[in-house]
Every structure is written in C-alpha cells, then in structure tokens.
Design brief:
mainly alpha; Growth Hormone, Chain: A; 2 domains; 0% strand; D-glucose transmembrane transporter activity; membrane; galactose transmembrane transporter activity; sugar transport
Length: 510
C-alpha cells in the first residue's frame, strides 16, 4: 500500500511540476536563442534594410566604381567619402536594431513582472498559465514568420511579447510549484525553476548550431520553436491539479482543496496539509497587505527592500547577461576559432553548477556563498579583460579569456544566480512579500534590459563592461554588515515556532 501511494504521489507531482517548469524551460530558451544565430540574423537585417553585407566592401566598391569627386570637409585635408559616412550610419542602424531585438525581451518582462501574482490570484494558477501561453504563441508566431516580412520589426515585436509571457511566468511558476510541493521537498522542487531556465539556454545554444537550425535557411524556425513547449504545456495543464493553497486560502473551497491534495499526495489523509494551510490563512487574514510605496516609506520595511534591490542589482550588473546574450561575439573577439561550441560549453557549465548550488546553499549559507561568488566573478572579470586587451600581442591570452569566462559562470551559479530570488521571500512575511517580490522582479528585469541594450554598444569598452562587477561585493557587504541579519532568519524562526507549537508574529529582521 505504501509503495502504491508513493508511486501515485510521485506520478501526479512529477506531471504537475514538469508541466509548470516547461514555462521556465521556454524562458531560458528565449534568453539564449537570440545569441547563436546572431550573425545570420544581422545579415538578414542588412539585406532587408538594403545595407551591404560588408560595409568595408561597400566603401571600396564605391571608391572604385564612382566617378564623382569625394567631398572634403573645410579645414580637413583628409577626404570624407559619402559612402564611408553612409556605411557608418548603416552600421549604427544595424547595431541599434540588433540591440532592440535583444533588449525588447527584457522590456516585456519589466512590464509583466508586476502582474504575474495578480493574474494567478484572479484566475487561479492553472488558468493563468493557460492565458499566459497565448502571449507565448503570439510571440513565437511573429518570430517564426519574420523571414517573410520586415524581419527586424517582427523579431523585435515577437521578443517583446515573449518577454511579457516570461515576465508573467517568472512569478507564476515558482508560486505554483511551491504551493503544490510537500514541505519536505519544497526547496528541491523550487530549485527546478532555475534549473529549467539554464537547461533552456543550453538547448537553445545546441539547436542554434549552424548545421542544425542556426543557418540562413532555418533561423526563423529556430526562433519560432518556442511555441512547442507552450503547446505541450497547454495540453498537459488540463491534467494538472489546481494549487490546493489557492483553493483553500484564496477561494475558501476546502472540499476542492482536499481533492487536489489527495491527487498530489496519493493519500486520503491530508489533515496535516489542511492544518498547515489553515494556519497560513489565519496569518494572512491578521496581516494587512503592504503596498510598494509602503515598502520604502515604512521604516521596518525600508532596509530589507534596499538589501533585496541590491541583491538583484548585483546579479544583473555583474555582467552575466552580457555573457549569456553575447557570448558568441565575446569568444570570437577572444580569437576562438569555433565560438559557438564555446558558448555551448558555457551553457553546460551553467546547468551543472546550478544543480550543484542546490546542495551548497543549505550547507554554506546565503551570505557566504553570495560573497564568494561575487568575489570570484571579480577576479575572473580582471583576467577576462586583461586577456582581451592583450590578445593582439599575446595570442595565448585567448585561452586565459575563455577560461575566465567559464569560471565566471561557475561563480555566478554558486551564489549570485539563485540566491537573490529566495532571499527576498525569506526577508518578508506574508503581508509585504507580494509587493517585495514584484519590485524585486521589476528591478531584475530593468537591469536585464539595460545590459541587453547597452552591452553591444559598449563592446569596445570590454574591460569596463565586465569590471562593473567590482563594486557590487563591496556594496553588498556594506549593506549586510549594516543590517546584520542572521542566516535565514524567517525560516529559522518558523522552524522554532513549529517545534514549540507557538505561532510567532513577523520577526523583526532589521
């Protein structure tokens, strides 16, 4: 009997979690898919906009074929070619459209990040995911048909709509899988969201290889392929149970909540879960919701929200998304003969160390891992920048740069990658938590947008781009020393109260 129950629990839970993290997988796919076929898409942009595939060739051809005299600037003995001037303008235009193609995804995420929780509470977790998938399908169709129309407009629009979808699910998926998971498995199952994201990045890099889909004939299929997990999820969601917490706490439908729990647990005895949810509902009813403005005006919330924002700013401005978005270009600059394969290697390392961080974070502690990760990234950024600067003089510096990039990603996933998301939840109790998570997600997406938009333009200032990481460990250390929080204060107090059978009020963390 026990074995049967275990199988039922595992089967139902696996189905629900797998279905939910398909969104996370697509999130990662959308992040990484634009990177692999970068040169192919830029070439297509030039074709659509009537710009030569090689500005240098255009200038030379103009000089050879034109019979017009080159104009000169007053006081400047050097002749200025109109072709050269036009080529420079065209190159800037292409760079702008490419940067928008990358950053429009983050713009959509910024806008939608405020509405994920609201949509989940209004429609329920399952229906909210179904509605969000409409955005995913629209974005995928626009990008999939981009080869047939004005590709730059369709790709920018499609990625913006896909960003809206990812902004919604970045709140919906962790919420749903956290609410359906048993208490003993909640941490491990919650980490699957981040693991699915980095797996999506890795898969996008593999299928983006030139001999698979990242070529001139099939690149539009590569971009539109994100519709596949969306369609699969739509089908599977009809077989997934609604969140019992949503049914019981939000809708006060105990019978439906018990039915959902029985499917998830594989047992008729769900008294423990119902008791836990009853306490949570009483807590929520006794504590008023806190607005975003109150987080900054109320002294008891101001300091923890500043720490939360600092964590997310440190994560984004560490330079990691510069590597995710432009890793192929960076490896090419570093002199790697096959930069696409090096990019895939970064994705593989990213995935492995995300899995490793799940085990490390509970043993080493949040603060320690975050500081170790940021300090390691700082050292790697120095070697990466020095390697790129000295590449022309010392060819072997390409290996230094490549090794630094791999280690940079390792240190990121040890701490700065996963920690900011659940640290914010641990800083706040039920009342202020939704607003805190919303503003933290918005700040994360805003940093993502700034990096995506500016990184390509500042590629010539590679040292500066990556050495931005230098200031964040110091700032973070300053805030944490000022706050002096204990490791996981909310979690420890909750565990202590459970042992004593006492319900504690919100701990005074700061």
């Amino acid at each position: 009997m026990t074995e049967s129950r275990c199988t039922t629990v595992t089967g139902t839970l696996v189905l629900a979690v797998f279905t939910a993290v398909l969104s996370s997988f697509q999130f990662g796919y959308d992040i990484g898919v634009i990177n692999a076929p970068q040169q192919v898409i830029i070439t297509h942009y030039r074709h659509v906009l009537g710009v030569s595939l090689d500005d240098g060739i255009a200038i030379n051809n103009y000089a050879l074929n034109s019979t017009e005299e080159l104009p000169t600037s007053p006081g400047d003995p050097t002749p200025v070619s109109w072709a050269e001037e036009e080529a420079m303008t065209s190159a800037s235009l292409i760079t702008m459209f490419w940067s928008l193609s990358v950053s429009s995804f983050a713009v959509g995420g910024m806008i939608a990040s405020f509405f994920g929780g609201l949509l989940g509470d209004k429609l329920g977790r399952i229906k909210a995911l179904l509605v969000a998938n409409i955005l995913s399908l629209v974005g995928a169709l626009l990008m999939g048909f981009s080869k047939l129309g004005p590709s730059h407009i369709l790709i920018i629009s499609g990625r913006g709509i896909s960003g809206l979808y990812c902004g919604l699910i970045s709140g919906l998926v962790p919420m749903y899988i956290g609410e359906i998971a048993p208490t003993t498995l909640r941490g491990a199952i919650g980490a699957l969201h981040q693991l699915a994201v980095v797996t999506g990045i890795l898969i996008s890099q593999i299928v983006g290889l030139d001999f698979i889909l990242g070529n001139h004939e099939l690149w539009h299929i590569l971009l539109g392929l994100s519709a596949v997990p969306a369609i699969l999820q739509c089908l599977l969601l009809f077989f997934c149970p609604e969140s019992p917490r949503y049914l019981y706490i939000k809708l006060d439908e105990e019978a439906k909540a018990k039915k959902s729990l029985k499917r998830l647990r594989g047992s008729d005895d769900v008294t423990k879960d119902i008791t836990e949810m009853r306490k949570e509902r009483e807590e929520a009813s006794n504590e008023k919701k806190v607005s975003i403005i109150q987080l900054f005006t109320n002294a008891s919330y101001r300091q923890p929200i500043l720490v939360a924002l600092m964590l997310h700013a440190a994560q984004q401005f560490s330079g990691i998304n510069g590597i995710f978005y432009y890793s192929t270009s960076i490896f090419q600059t570093a002199g790697i003969s096959q930069p696409v394969y090096a990019t895939i290697g970064v994705g593989a390392v990213n995935t492995v160390f995300t899995a490793v961080s799940v085990f490390l974070v509970e043993k080493a502690g949040r603060r320690s891992l975050f500081l170790i990760g940021m300090s390691g990234m700082f050292v790697c950024a120095i070697f990466m920048s020095v390697g790129l600067v000295l590449l022309n003089k010392l060819p072997w510096m390409s290996y230094v740069s490549m090794t630094s990039i791999f280690l940079f990603v390792c240190f990121f996933e040890i701490g700065p990658g996963p920690i900011p998301w659940f640290m914010v939840a641990e800083f706040f109790s039920q009342g202020p938590r939704p607003a805190a998570l919303a503003i933290a997600a918005f700040s994360n997406w805003t940093g993502n947008f700034i990096i995506a938009l500016c990184f390509q333009t500042s590629a010539d200032l590679m040292c500066f781009s990556f050495l931005l990481v230098w200031s964040w460990p110091l700032l973070y250390s300053h805030f944490l020393k000022f706050q002096k929080p204990k490791e996981n204060p909310l979690r420890k107090l909750q565990q202590s109260s459970e042992r004593r059978g006492v319900q504690l009020k919100r701990p005074k963390l700061l």
